């Protein structure tokens, strides 16, 4: 062993390789070193891994890692994992990495001083005989993490040919090294590692590498000779769990604001003491503490409902006492599924040691609304002395009001901090002062707003995309899976996902089962095959089979042994009767006239359209006729996804404030207006907890119609005050009629002059036709009928999703047969697409190996749009959902004096300065505020707008703005009236109420 202490001529040479440089000036600002020795960063990472092992990991994840790294000895496994986590950056002890000191300091604070420090370091390193190449700039390039993967197995005793020996290969050591080689996001393949071995010059650096390993093992009290015998990561989930833990420990340890750079004149024992102390504080500061809930009553968790409903109580009684579980809850909207899921998460945290929960929602808007409920639940269930981090995980999270409130909680203040000034009017009117004291313990550290970090928070809510990406090759896919695997994962609105998404969800569920996590799925009634697919995925992860295939719901509980329980008795809730009428769509003008007349004397009408253009056309028609019928424009609201977050969020907030429930659900919302018409797309169906007196909806698949019906007479407390004409729950289903009086459900075919229905681009034509048939069969001569839920729910869903049968109408039969065949072909493509992308932990019971978990830049980052940096290659990039991809574009306004602003009125100037020129605390804060503001002005443009008829000009023809903040981003500049004057000039227009509209090219 090379002496670990300082020698007479200075520090031992293995201590001289640097690991971090002070690009932000934080260390130098404290009067400390401009660079941190590599060994110091390794110690910091080891200490963080140890703290996370003790305080963050769930019981099951710790057990999986103990099995893989300790031969069932938890104390040994902890040391081994700390040791390997430290070695993630071993490859930095190489010429091709060390030559980078100060070479990329363009944006560093006092860049010239950092370059001088680099020259001083190199002089000292050469004097100490650090084996630097004579000409550093001539060294072959390899990434440092790949050099770690290349060098480590040999150093730990593998003598295979790839390790420059001629003996047997130690698969466990190579597996671990490969995983460490992926700590920057992509697990490398064998060729990448082999090429890195050549650049690493392992024989030249071996003395220094061995000194690092030996001294690290000494400080950890670890016998290196035991490693080949105890390192056996054979269970599939151990691979992403280990890789994710390493990344989290590295990221925490890389924060120079929490970890000091070490001086070479101090002994490494003192470094290690500092590492352990600072790691403990970092884990505390980042709220990386496992949930350890105390026993609590239902009434304490949900103060407005003192007792659970019968089905909720029966479900809780059916949960395993000491096993993870898959829980499927299929009940109507508004029945209490969310509260039951949260109660399940509390129970499973107590019984299984899960460290928290993540709730996956179908949309960003649904995420933002349900986050308030999660926040309230955590405030009630955590105990008075606990502070917890609640991450909101989606692309526009940083501009939502709740996120700002949570960040304020982390800073210990009330009020708006670092908010977008144009969003100041958005607040949470449901919070009383008494609530704030309790809920201020639910916080959000801004650290979790950075990409990939949200899921490692013990508590989180976000879109379902995070789960579908957790089993696909993409950057840091394993970190997503690691974050989820420690939790109870709740998946909401499962009925709303396409087959492609459901297949990816099933793959992730298999991984979660293998890792020992629990999953709660919330849905309207599922088709039998969809329910069985979820159960099979769960059992596959546990390498078992379900003991029955007769799981009919409404609640199904499956334990880790495949035992299926259906809690009984489940008392049926009070039936909900709805009067339904089928109405051929009269067009926007006639429909607008009917709506204005129907609610003239009072009433809340909601209209759900399948497409943005349909919603916009109806809204425009309503505004055109409003004055003539005595309506104010403020009594007509439009909400859809083609609005800027800056404009959409206030509309969402207004709708939920007016039509949502009172904080105390036993009381009527005092802000509920006398009359209102709300037009929206699926955002109403999936995202907003609102109560309408009357509902109109486009024809949609039956399960989604039933979900939309859940917004009708949703809050019983309003029943007594509904206008007389709306005392009965009534839903009108609008459908397009073809020449044969059948539903027009197939897409337009302009080449053969077939009109078609663009709704076919949203929903499978068969599901629309079969839904129309199921409803039409119930209708009387006036096309009216009644449905009663939940008693009719199962029959309706089964009749729609079953193959077509003979029908008295040959024309309808032909339509159903034709569209069924097309749909089955589409489903087969979706299934094949999903399975070709997804990693599965087991294939026919055989565990997946690390060589099958590789990814690369072609797989992308998982959440990048087409053409964005890091988006990957078409056909290989990870996808969270199918459908038309989108391109994120920034919309800015140009005032008459040339000033660029975020808003049409010109009240909020756009900050487009380059805040990276000097990395200081002030410029970093300004940069974050700038990015949040730009996010509030970012809109997803459908990729299809650039193709087919009426295409927009290609992105590369858009004249970029010269400002560095947006220079490499698609940017549209609008006049104050909303006309596009730069970018796709003259081809789009935008209005804060109606959103973005594509225009045809000007003639001539």
Chain-wise SSE layout:
Blueprint lengths: L17 E4 L4 H4 L5 E3 H18 L3 H11 L4 H13 L8 H4 L12 H17 L16 H12 L15 H10 L9 H11 L1 H19 L6 H4 L7 H16 L14 H18 L12 H4 L8 H9 L6 E6 L6 H16 L3 E6 L2 H18 L6 E6 L7 H11 L21 H7 L2 E2 L15 E5 L1 H4 L8 H9 L1 E5 L7 H17 L2 E6 L4 H14 L13 E5 L4 E2 L10 E9 L3 H11 L4 E6 L3 H15 L9 E4 L5 H15 L15 E6 L1 H6 L6 E5 L3 H8 L20 E6 L29 H12 L7 E6 L3 H9 L8 H28 L4 E2 L2 E2 L38 E9 L5 E2 L19 H16 L1 E5 L28 E4 L5 E3 L5 E4 L3 E4 L6
Parallel strand pairs: 3-9, 4-7, 4-8, 5-6, 5-7, 8-9, 12-17, 13-15, 13-16, 14-15, 16-17, 21-24
Antiparallel strand pairs: 1-2, 3-10, 10-11, 12-18, 19-20, 21-22, 21-23, 24-25, 26-27
Helix pairs in contact: 2-4, 2-12, 2-13, 3-4, 4-10, 4-12, 7-8, 7-9, 8-12, 12-21, 22-23, 22-31, 24-25, 29-30, 29-31
Largest sheet: 9 strands, mixed
Helix/sheet category: alpha/beta
Q: Mean pLDDT, nearest integer?
A: 89
Highest CATH level, the class of the largest domain: Mainly Alpha
Supply the CATH architecture of the largest domain. Answer: Orthogonal Bundle
Strand order of the largest sheet: 6-5-7-4-8-9-3-10-11
Helix % is: 25-40%
The number of distinct helices, counting runs of at least 4 residues, comes to: 32
Extended strand count:
27
Unreliable segments of 5+ consecutive residues: 1-9, 413-437
Per CATH, what is the topology of the largest domain?
Hypothetical protein af1432
